[in-house]
Amino acid sequence: MRLVGLDQINGTEVLGKPIYDIDGRRLLNSGVSLRPAIIQKLYEKGISSIYIDDDISEGIEVNSLLREETKNHAKLIVREEMHRLSHKSTLDYSRLAGVVDSILEEILSRKIEMINVKDVRMQDEQTFAHCVNVCVMSIALSARLSLTVQKVKSIALGALLHDIGKALLPPSLLNKTDALTESEMTEMKKHPIIGYNLLKDNADTPATTKVAVLMHHEHVNGTGYPMNLTSDKIHYSARILTVCDEFDTAINDKKNENVLRTTDAVEYLIGASGHIFDKSIAEEFIKMIPIYNEGSIVLLSNGIIAIVVKNNPVNLTRPIVRAFYNPKTKTKYSKVHIIDLRTELSIKILRELKVNVNEMIDS
After folding, report:
1. What architecture is the 68-286 domain classified under in CATH?
2. DSSP label at residue 1
3. Which of 71-75, 86-90, 300-304, 309-313 has the lowest mean pLDDT?
4. Which of 114, 145, 62, 134 minimizes the C-alpha distance to 290?
5. Is 18 exposed, middle or buried, given 0-12, 13-18 or 19+ CB atoms closer than 10 A?
6. DSSP H or E run through 119
7. Judging by beta carbons within 10 Å of its beta carbon (0-12, 13-18, 19+), is residue 278 exposed, middle or buried?
8. pLDDT tens digit string along 322-343?
9. Is the pLDDT of residue 190 over 90?
10. What pLDDT score was predicted for residue 61?
């Protein structure tokens, strides 16, 4: 199984993971042949990438932190509560807390060393899927930082609610696809304060959750918003959320014209560490992120193209890969041509490839 862009589909592949709509209904089952008509429907839904099973990725498993049922239920609850807030000015905190409990239980029941952060999203679920993904990453990161379960839960609730203030912003602003004007950006930057004001008087919401919502766009060098806070003046919960929020936006948000590959997003975190992000928190987060996700197509330093089979939690730049093609010699390799980069130190990955590999091999 591997994640590919729809523009890389040639019609011989089958769907690797089921696709669900915003209400959690299954649109397509795994194993469905990806005919042109189906690809067109996916484009219309705003989906740009999917998991496929093909000959190149045979036998490779791509595991998610959450079961699809848990993830879809969480997105549905976040959507319904944001809708309730925008129309009735109320929230059912017990439902949101229940979502956090279910995600928390599922993640903490397993020992998490690495997290797969790439997500398949429809355009109309971007905000809700983003909130859930940030929640998942914040739980994994908080647990790695050895915070108590109660603190992890409070931060996770803040992650789930971090964009709740957007529910009261004009839909025309939220749904705009062009670049925001200066006045529109000023309006957008009000959402942390709006969110905080919605939560501040609620006795059931932990103080950590409230301050995380308020400060999640603050940067340690004082260039963030809404209060231009610096370093230790930013609550630790918000410093955790900032890393998770900006990383998910960088690699998954389709409204972001500069959506990054995981490698580039990690480079951004490294470069902004100590300036935008808390250095120690960013460093711990990076240790959980596979530089090359399982199923990624990569170019090796010996000129061979390979697929990532399994990551190495000790050294995330040196996974186990399976060679399948040498474009210089036109050599095709069998599936037994495995290279463990932990031991084959003379070989390294140069970069991830985003190409239609079937067309390249057949050319």
Report:
1. Orthogonal Bundle (1.10)
2. -
3. 86-90
4. 114
5. middle
6. none
7. buried
8. 999 999 999 999 999 999 999 9
9. yes
10. 87
Candidate ranges 9-13, 20-24, 191-195, 352-356; pick with highest mean pLDDT: 191-195
3-class state of residue 219 by DSSP: coil
Rounded-to-integer distance, Cα 304 and Cα 221, Å:
43
What does the domain layout of the chain look like in residue ranges?
A: 2-53, 68-286, 297-362
Contact yes or no for 347/355 (Cβ under 8 A): no
What pTM, to 2 d.p., does this model score? 0.89
Which amino acid makes up residue 287?
A: K
Q: How many CA atoms lie within 13 A of 349 on its CB side?
A: 27
Sign of the four-CA dihedral 281, 282, 286, 287: negative
Instruction: Please report which confidence band the pLDDT of residue 298 belongs to, taking 50, 70 and 90 as the band edges.
Output: very high
CA quadruple 108, 110, 115, 121: dihedral sign: negative
Structure tokens at 323: 């060679």
Distance CA 234, CA 242 (A): 10
How far is the first Cα of the chain from the last one, in angstroms, to the nearest whole number? 23
| pLDDT band (50, 70, 90) for residue 222 | very high
Pick one of 3.30.479.10, 3.90.105.10, 3.10.310.40, 3.90.180.10 as the CATH number of 2-53. Answer: 3.90.105.10
Retrieve residue 37's tokens.
Answer: 């008509």
Residue tagged 């983003």 (tokens): 130
Can 2-53 and 68-286 be said to share one CATH topology? no
Indicate the length of the chain as a whole number.
363
Using CA atoms, how far residue 333 sits from 294, 307, 340, in Å, is 19, 12, 16
CA 42 to chain centroid: 20
Q: Mean pLDDT score of the chain, rounded to an integer?
A: 90
pLDDT at 273: 96
